[in-house]
Amino acid sequence: RGGPAPAPAALAAAASAALAAAGHPAAAVTADPGGEIVAVVAGEVLVAPSVWLAAPGGALTLAAGTGAPAAYAGALLFARPSPGSGLWAVDDLPLERYVAGVVAREMPASWPEAALEAQAVACRSYALYALVAGGRAGDLYELVAGPQDQVYGGLGAETPATDEATWATAGEVLTYRGEPIQALYEPDSGGYTAPSADVWGTPVPYLAAVPEPPGYRPLRWREVRTGRELEALVQAATGVDVGPVQAVAPLPPLGPGGRVLALALTGPRGTVTVRDDRVRTALDLPSDVFALRTDAEVAVEGAGGRRRIALALEGLTAQGAAVAHVLGPGERAVVVGAGAARALPAAPAAFTFVGRGLGPGLGMSQDGALYMARQGAGAAAILLYYYRGVELSWWYGGP
After folding, report:
1. Which of 197, 187, 190, 184 is nearest to 288 (CA)?
2. pTM
3. Do 100 and 163 form a contact (C-beta atoms < 8 A)?
4. Average pLDDT of 293-318?
5. What stretches of 66-206 adopt beta strand conformation (E)?
């Protein structure tokens, strides 16, 4: 804990990369078929299993594959994690520089100072958790510079506001029993964060179910999937082909805030059940907090209010303004207005998911942090609200 640790982050995989740095010759890096890295700098060729390139006191501008050039601090390592992989660029840089490049990509710079500082502490805690856990790909890197871990944008992403939030909290982390926590966060919880056991199947004490503060209004969304689309999505996620999906049913119990923990999808060739976070990812939905409607339902309005039913209505009389229609065997219809009848399909052709939130529901809700900051809460209050049972500690530095 004597000072900020380096945070090697994997940036990109590509066939080749070009680098430039002010006051230094340009460089080109490729991976040859034999697995060696070939670097050409100022006409000189270097061939080795891995290559380090740095611009002392400056920044390297990297263009990899079809991506736009981006500037990075630190030194860049070029290597191949395995013989069949692409060329990887790994940025080895001071932790606080890494945090500054993450905060700028994970939260809008225009948000209140308290929200940005809470984000900086969460980013730093997550990075230190990964560093303590150890490296990946044979210790080639600790973090992926994308949504698999945290989105890292390098020097070009930084802004004065996000830099200030980083340096104002430098060294400050969230700990549980003396160790950095896996400080996960998401755009919007949908009204209630999820306990880790509902997402991963494994309980983590500080990733508990937490209601959003009173007055908070979650993001709302609506997605439509046809039976054919659900068939393809479910087969890709589970390997099971049930055919065009004809029925979708959330299974009890629901999680906190109405989160769907298990979903049964039935087609002509059987039923498959998806559970935990795969409810969201398998169906490509923004979150797993949703209600379901189909085009084979009918809305009934009575003295008790409006409700939706999706049953065989044989023999039921639907009374309109000027006409009644008696449903015969196997027939589904609803009377609309003065005698206009609309036929309903015998089985749903489309399923409408109407939901709240964005993401798996774990950890700090960024929209919730924004709401709390606008209500006057500081960074510490925001963090300790979402991560339960933790301590806010100085891993290094301090006031």
Report:
1. 190
2. 0.84
3. yes
4. 52
5. 70-72, 75-79, 87-92, 143-144, 172-176, 179-180, 185-186
